[in-house]
Amino acid sequence: MKIDPIHQFNIEPLFTIGHIGNQTIAFTNSSLYMFIAVALTAVLMLGSGRQLVPGRFQSMAEITYEFVASTIRSTAGSEGMKFFPLIFSLFMFICVSNLVGIIPYTFTISSHIIVTVALALLVFFTVLIYGIYKNGLKFFKIFVPSGVPIYVLPLVMFIEILSFFLRPVSHSVRLFANMLAGHIALKVFAGFVAMLGVSLGALGWFGGMLPLALTVALTALELLVAFLQAYVFAILTCIYLNDAIHPGH
Amino acid sequence: MEPAAAKLIGAGIACIGMGGAGVGVGIIFGNYLAAAVRNPSAAQGQFGNLIFGFAVTEALGIFSLLIALLLLFVPL
Protein backbone atom coordinates (compact mmCIF):
# COMPACT_ATOMS: atom_id res chain seq x y z
CA MET A 1 0.00 0.00 0.00
CA LYS A 2 1.36 3.37 -1.02
CA ILE A 3 0.83 6.67 0.78
CA ASP A 4 0.52 9.78 -1.36
CA PRO A 5 0.78 12.70 1.07
CA ILE A 6 0.98 15.30 -1.71
CA HIS A 7 -2.33 14.37 -3.35
CA GLN A 8 -4.31 16.55 -0.92
CA PHE A 9 -2.72 19.69 -2.38
CA ASN A 10 -3.94 19.03 -5.96
CA ILE A 11 -5.84 21.91 -7.50
CA GLU A 12 -8.76 20.61 -9.54
CA PRO A 13 -10.98 22.79 -11.70
CA LEU A 14 -14.65 22.54 -10.72
CA PHE A 15 -16.05 24.38 -13.75
CA THR A 16 -14.60 26.52 -16.51
CA ILE A 17 -15.39 30.21 -16.73
CA GLY A 18 -13.62 31.13 -19.97
CA HIS A 19 -10.40 31.21 -21.92
CA ILE A 20 -7.70 33.88 -22.27
CA GLY A 21 -5.37 32.86 -25.08
CA ASN A 22 -4.34 29.28 -24.37
CA GLN A 23 -5.02 29.62 -20.64
CA THR A 24 -8.18 28.23 -19.14
CA ILE A 25 -9.80 30.37 -16.46
CA ALA A 26 -11.44 27.86 -14.14
CA PHE A 27 -13.23 27.97 -10.81
CA THR A 28 -11.08 25.55 -8.78
CA ASN A 29 -11.38 23.93 -5.37
CA SER A 30 -8.88 26.58 -4.21
CA SER A 31 -11.27 29.36 -5.25
CA LEU A 32 -14.16 27.52 -3.59
CA TYR A 33 -12.34 27.40 -0.25
CA MET A 34 -11.36 31.07 -0.56
CA PHE A 35 -15.06 31.88 -0.92
CA ILE A 36 -15.81 29.64 2.09
CA ALA A 37 -13.21 31.48 4.21
CA VAL A 38 -14.61 34.88 3.24
CA ALA A 39 -18.20 33.72 3.80
CA LEU A 40 -17.43 32.33 7.28
CA THR A 41 -15.68 35.58 8.26
CA ALA A 42 -18.61 37.60 6.92
CA VAL A 43 -21.11 35.47 8.85
CA LEU A 44 -19.09 35.96 12.04
CA MET A 45 -18.62 39.70 11.68
CA LEU A 46 -21.92 40.73 10.05
CA GLY A 47 -24.29 38.20 11.57
CA SER A 48 -23.23 38.69 15.17
CA GLY A 49 -25.63 41.51 15.97
CA ARG A 50 -25.12 44.91 17.60
CA GLN A 51 -26.56 44.40 21.09
CA LEU A 52 -25.40 46.54 24.01
CA VAL A 53 -25.01 43.40 26.11
CA PRO A 54 -23.29 40.93 23.77
CA GLY A 55 -24.34 37.31 23.51
CA ARG A 56 -21.90 34.47 22.85
CA PHE A 57 -21.72 34.97 19.11
CA GLN A 58 -21.28 38.73 19.39
CA SER A 59 -18.63 38.29 22.10
CA MET A 60 -16.63 36.10 19.73
CA ALA A 61 -16.71 38.80 17.04
CA GLU A 62 -15.75 41.48 19.59
CA ILE A 63 -12.89 39.38 20.96
CA THR A 64 -11.38 38.97 17.47
CA TYR A 65 -11.71 42.72 16.89
CA GLU A 66 -10.15 43.61 20.24
CA PHE A 67 -7.36 41.02 19.79
CA VAL A 68 -6.22 42.44 16.44
CA ALA A 69 -6.68 46.05 17.57
CA SER A 70 -4.54 45.58 20.71
CA THR A 71 -1.84 43.82 18.62
CA ILE A 72 -1.69 46.81 16.26
CA ARG A 73 -1.68 49.37 19.09
CA SER A 74 1.16 47.64 20.93
CA THR A 75 3.42 47.12 17.88
CA ALA A 76 2.69 50.00 15.50
CA GLY A 77 1.20 52.59 17.87
CA SER A 78 -2.20 54.26 17.55
CA GLU A 79 -1.19 55.65 14.13
CA GLY A 80 -1.13 52.06 12.89
CA MET A 81 -4.89 51.81 13.48
CA LYS A 82 -5.55 53.33 10.05
CA PHE A 83 -4.27 50.00 8.69
CA PHE A 84 -6.71 48.05 10.85
CA PRO A 85 -8.94 46.95 7.93
CA LEU A 86 -5.93 45.51 6.05
CA ILE A 87 -4.47 43.64 9.01
CA PHE A 88 -7.83 42.39 10.25
CA SER A 89 -8.74 41.07 6.80
CA LEU A 90 -5.37 39.33 6.45
CA PHE A 91 -5.60 37.81 9.93
CA MET A 92 -9.17 36.57 9.56
CA PHE A 93 -8.64 35.23 6.02
CA ILE A 94 -5.52 33.27 6.98
CA CYS A 95 -6.88 32.10 10.34
CA VAL A 96 -10.24 30.90 8.98
CA SER A 97 -8.71 29.20 5.93
CA ASN A 98 -6.10 27.45 8.11
CA LEU A 99 -8.76 26.26 10.54
CA VAL A 100 -11.04 25.06 7.74
CA GLY A 101 -8.06 23.25 6.22
CA ILE A 102 -7.59 21.08 9.33
CA ILE A 103 -10.97 19.39 8.75
CA PRO A 104 -10.20 16.10 6.95
CA TYR A 105 -10.85 15.99 3.18
CA THR A 106 -10.80 19.77 2.87
CA PHE A 107 -8.35 21.91 0.96
CA THR A 108 -5.88 24.29 2.64
CA ILE A 109 -5.49 27.50 0.63
CA SER A 110 -2.42 28.72 2.49
CA SER A 111 -0.47 25.53 1.68
CA HIS A 112 0.08 26.99 -1.80
CA ILE A 113 2.97 29.40 -2.09
CA ILE A 114 1.28 31.43 -4.83
CA VAL A 115 -1.46 32.47 -2.37
CA THR A 116 0.92 33.39 0.46
CA VAL A 117 3.28 35.23 -1.91
CA ALA A 118 0.36 37.32 -3.14
CA LEU A 119 -0.53 38.27 0.45
CA ALA A 120 3.11 38.95 1.41
CA LEU A 121 3.74 41.12 -1.68
CA LEU A 122 0.59 43.09 -0.87
CA VAL A 123 2.08 43.86 2.56
CA PHE A 124 5.55 44.56 1.11
CA PHE A 125 4.29 47.10 -1.45
CA THR A 126 1.94 48.70 1.08
CA VAL A 127 4.92 49.31 3.38
CA LEU A 128 7.15 50.57 0.56
CA ILE A 129 4.58 52.89 -1.04
CA TYR A 130 3.12 54.23 2.20
CA GLY A 131 6.61 54.72 3.69
CA ILE A 132 7.80 56.79 0.72
CA TYR A 133 4.46 58.66 0.48
CA LYS A 134 4.49 59.62 4.16
CA ASN A 135 8.21 60.21 4.83
CA GLY A 136 9.66 60.95 1.39
CA LEU A 137 13.37 60.20 1.21
CA LYS A 138 13.56 59.97 5.02
CA PHE A 139 12.03 56.51 4.63
CA PHE A 140 15.44 55.20 3.54
CA LYS A 141 16.73 55.92 7.05
CA ILE A 142 15.47 52.45 7.95
CA PHE A 143 18.54 51.15 6.12
CA VAL A 144 20.91 53.29 8.22
CA PRO A 145 20.70 52.35 11.90
CA SER A 146 21.83 55.17 14.20
CA GLY A 147 24.83 54.75 16.50
CA VAL A 148 26.76 52.41 14.20
CA PRO A 149 30.50 53.20 13.77
CA ILE A 150 31.23 54.63 10.33
CA TYR A 151 33.64 51.87 9.28
CA VAL A 152 31.11 49.07 9.64
CA LEU A 153 28.21 51.15 8.29
CA PRO A 154 28.50 49.92 4.64
CA LEU A 155 28.33 46.30 5.81
CA VAL A 156 25.37 46.99 8.12
CA MET A 157 23.56 48.89 5.36
CA PHE A 158 24.12 46.00 2.96
CA ILE A 159 22.66 43.55 5.49
CA GLU A 160 19.70 45.85 6.23
CA ILE A 161 18.87 46.28 2.54
CA LEU A 162 19.19 42.54 1.92
CA SER A 163 16.96 41.69 4.86
CA PHE A 164 14.39 44.27 3.71
CA PHE A 165 14.09 42.61 0.32
CA LEU A 166 14.08 39.11 1.84
CA ARG A 167 11.04 40.05 3.95
CA PRO A 168 8.37 39.01 1.45
CA VAL A 169 10.23 35.70 0.93
CA SER A 170 10.37 34.76 4.60
CA HIS A 171 6.91 36.22 5.26
CA SER A 172 5.27 34.01 2.62
CA VAL A 173 7.44 30.89 2.90
CA ARG A 174 6.89 30.70 6.68
CA LEU A 175 3.12 30.39 6.35
CA PHE A 176 3.24 28.12 3.32
CA ALA A 177 5.92 25.75 4.65
CA ASN A 178 4.30 25.44 8.08
CA MET A 179 0.96 24.51 6.56
CA LEU A 180 2.50 22.17 3.97
CA ALA A 181 4.78 20.37 6.44
CA GLY A 182 2.01 20.04 9.03
CA HIS A 183 -0.48 18.55 6.60
CA ILE A 184 2.10 16.15 5.11
CA ALA A 185 3.05 14.96 8.61
CA LEU A 186 -0.64 14.40 9.46
CA LYS A 187 -1.18 12.41 6.27
CA VAL A 188 1.96 10.30 6.77
CA PHE A 189 1.00 9.36 10.35
CA ALA A 190 -2.60 8.62 9.30
CA GLY A 191 -1.16 6.42 6.54
CA PHE A 192 0.73 4.34 9.12
CA VAL A 193 -2.61 3.16 10.58
CA ALA A 194 -3.79 1.76 7.26
CA MET A 195 -0.35 0.34 6.41
CA LEU A 196 -0.15 -1.59 9.69
CA GLY A 197 -3.69 -2.93 9.34
CA VAL A 198 -3.29 -4.03 5.73
CA SER A 199 0.09 -5.71 6.22
CA LEU A 200 -0.30 -7.33 9.68
CA GLY A 201 -4.04 -8.06 9.91
CA ALA A 202 -5.74 -8.04 13.31
CA LEU A 203 -2.49 -7.44 15.21
CA GLY A 204 -1.78 -4.52 12.88
CA TRP A 205 -5.17 -2.91 13.48
CA PHE A 206 -4.49 -3.22 17.23
CA GLY A 207 -0.99 -1.74 16.85
CA GLY A 208 -2.46 0.98 14.65
CA MET A 209 -3.95 2.59 17.74
CA LEU A 210 -0.53 4.12 18.45
CA PRO A 211 -0.21 6.15 15.22
CA LEU A 212 -3.94 6.94 15.48
CA ALA A 213 -3.42 8.51 18.93
CA LEU A 214 -0.42 10.37 17.52
CA THR A 215 -2.57 11.67 14.64
CA VAL A 216 -5.08 13.05 17.14
CA ALA A 217 -2.25 14.74 19.07
CA LEU A 218 -0.78 16.13 15.85
CA THR A 219 -4.18 17.52 14.87
CA ALA A 220 -4.28 19.39 18.18
CA LEU A 221 -0.79 20.74 17.48
CA GLU A 222 -1.89 21.78 13.97
CA LEU A 223 -4.83 23.65 15.50
CA LEU A 224 -2.33 25.67 17.54
CA VAL A 225 -0.04 26.19 14.52
CA ALA A 226 -2.96 27.29 12.33
CA PHE A 227 -3.86 30.08 14.75
CA LEU A 228 -0.24 30.93 15.59
CA GLN A 229 0.81 31.32 11.96
CA ALA A 230 -2.12 33.67 11.28
CA TYR A 231 -1.10 35.69 14.35
CA VAL A 232 2.56 35.69 13.28
CA PHE A 233 1.57 36.90 9.81
CA ALA A 234 -0.51 39.70 11.34
CA ILE A 235 2.11 40.78 13.90
CA LEU A 236 4.89 40.83 11.28
CA THR A 237 2.66 42.97 9.07
CA CYS A 238 2.28 45.38 12.02
CA ILE A 239 6.05 45.47 12.60
CA TYR A 240 6.78 46.13 8.92
CA LEU A 241 4.14 48.87 8.86
CA ASN A 242 5.72 50.36 11.97
CA ASP A 243 8.90 50.85 9.90
CA ALA A 244 6.89 52.79 7.34
CA ILE A 245 5.13 54.93 9.97
CA HIS A 246 8.17 55.59 12.19
CA PRO A 247 11.37 55.16 10.09
CA GLY A 248 14.76 55.41 11.77
CA HIS A 249 15.55 52.95 14.55
CA MET B 1 26.00 8.13 -8.21
CA GLU B 2 22.49 8.25 -9.59
CA PRO B 3 21.17 11.85 -9.79
CA ALA B 4 17.94 10.78 -8.04
CA ALA B 5 19.92 9.29 -5.15
CA ALA B 6 22.03 12.45 -4.89
CA LYS B 7 18.84 14.54 -4.69
CA LEU B 8 17.47 12.41 -1.85
CA ILE B 9 20.76 12.60 0.08
CA GLY B 10 20.86 16.35 -0.49
CA ALA B 11 17.32 16.70 0.89
CA GLY B 12 18.38 14.82 3.99
CA ILE B 13 21.46 16.99 4.47
CA ALA B 14 19.38 20.16 4.00
CA CYS B 15 17.16 19.15 6.92
CA ILE B 16 20.16 19.29 9.31
CA GLY B 17 19.76 23.07 9.22
CA MET B 18 16.42 22.75 10.99
CA GLY B 19 18.26 21.55 14.08
CA GLY B 20 19.76 25.02 14.50
CA ALA B 21 16.33 26.59 14.30
CA GLY B 22 15.12 24.12 16.91
CA VAL B 23 17.89 25.19 19.29
CA GLY B 24 17.08 28.85 18.64
CA VAL B 25 13.34 28.47 19.24
CA GLY B 26 14.09 26.51 22.43
CA ILE B 27 16.36 29.26 23.71
CA ILE B 28 13.73 31.91 23.00
CA PHE B 29 10.86 30.12 24.74
CA GLY B 30 13.10 28.94 27.58
CA ASN B 31 14.37 32.44 28.30
CA TYR B 32 10.85 33.85 28.06
CA LEU B 33 9.63 31.29 30.56
CA ALA B 34 12.54 31.98 32.92
CA ALA B 35 11.87 35.71 32.75
CA ALA B 36 8.11 35.21 33.14
CA VAL B 37 8.60 33.15 36.30
CA ARG B 38 10.84 35.85 37.77
CA ASN B 39 8.47 38.69 36.94
CA PRO B 40 5.00 37.43 35.97
CA SER B 41 3.49 40.92 35.81
CA ALA B 42 5.81 41.93 32.94
CA ALA B 43 5.30 38.71 30.98
CA GLN B 44 2.09 39.70 29.19
CA GLY B 45 3.68 42.82 27.71
CA GLN B 46 6.50 40.86 26.10
CA PHE B 47 4.28 38.29 24.37
CA GLY B 48 4.44 40.16 21.06
CA ASN B 49 8.23 40.27 21.20
CA LEU B 50 8.27 36.55 21.99
CA ILE B 51 6.22 35.71 18.92
CA PHE B 52 8.31 38.04 16.75
CA GLY B 53 11.57 36.41 17.87
CA PHE B 54 10.05 32.99 17.39
CA ALA B 55 8.89 33.85 13.86
CA VAL B 56 12.24 35.31 12.77
CA THR B 57 14.17 32.33 14.16
CA GLU B 58 11.78 29.78 12.75
CA ALA B 59 12.06 31.31 9.28
CA LEU B 60 15.68 30.13 9.02
CA GLY B 61 14.71 26.55 9.78
CA ILE B 62 11.84 26.80 7.31
CA PHE B 63 14.30 27.88 4.60
CA SER B 64 16.23 24.64 4.96
CA LEU B 65 12.98 22.66 4.89
CA LEU B 66 12.11 24.54 1.71
CA ILE B 67 15.39 23.43 0.11
CA ALA B 68 14.56 19.83 1.03
CA LEU B 69 11.04 20.13 -0.41
CA LEU B 70 12.39 21.69 -3.60
CA LEU B 71 14.89 18.86 -4.00
CA LEU B 72 12.24 16.21 -3.39
CA PHE B 73 9.28 17.48 -5.38
CA VAL B 74 10.48 19.95 -8.04
CA PRO B 75 11.73 18.16 -11.17
CA LEU B 76 15.08 19.68 -12.17
UniProtKB/TrEMBL annotation, chain B:
Coiled-coil zones: none
Site (Reversibly protonated during proton transport): 58
Keyword Nucleotide-binding among UniProt keywords: no
Pfam family, one: ATP-synt_C
TM region positions: 6-29, 50-74
GO cellular component: plasma membrane; proton-transporting ATP synthase complex; proton-transporting two-sector ATPase complex, proton-transporting domain
Annotated compartments: Cell membrane; Membrane
Main location: membrane
GO molecular function, one term: lipid binding
Keywords, in A-Z order: ATP synthesis, Cell membrane, CF(0), Hydrogen ion transport, Hydrolase, Ion transport, Lipid-binding, Membrane, Transmembrane, Transmembrane helix, Transport
Location of the V-ATPase proteolipid subunit C-like domain: 9-71
Keyword Mitochondrion: no
SUPFAM superfamilies per the UniProt record, alphabetical: F1F0 ATP synthase subunit C (SSF81333)
InterPro entries for the chain: ATP_synth_F0_csu, ATP_synth_F0_csu_sf, ATPase_proteolipid_c-like_dom, F/V-ATP_Csub_sf
Membrane topology, record value: Multi-pass membrane protein
Function of the molecule: F(1)F(0) ATP synthase produces ATP from ADP in the presence of a proton or sodium gradient. F-type ATPases consist of two structural domains, F(1) containing the extramembraneous catalytic core and F(0) containing the membrane proton channel, linked together by a central stalk and a peripheral stalk. During catalysis, ATP synthesis in the catalytic domain of F(1) is coupled via a rotary mechanism of the central stalk subunits to proton translocation. Key component of the F(0) channel; it plays a direct role in translocation across the membrane. A homomeric c-ring of between 10-14 subunits forms the central stalk rotor element with the F(1) delta and epsilon subunits.
Protein family per UniProt: Belongs to the ATPase C chain family.
Protein name: ATP synthase subunit c
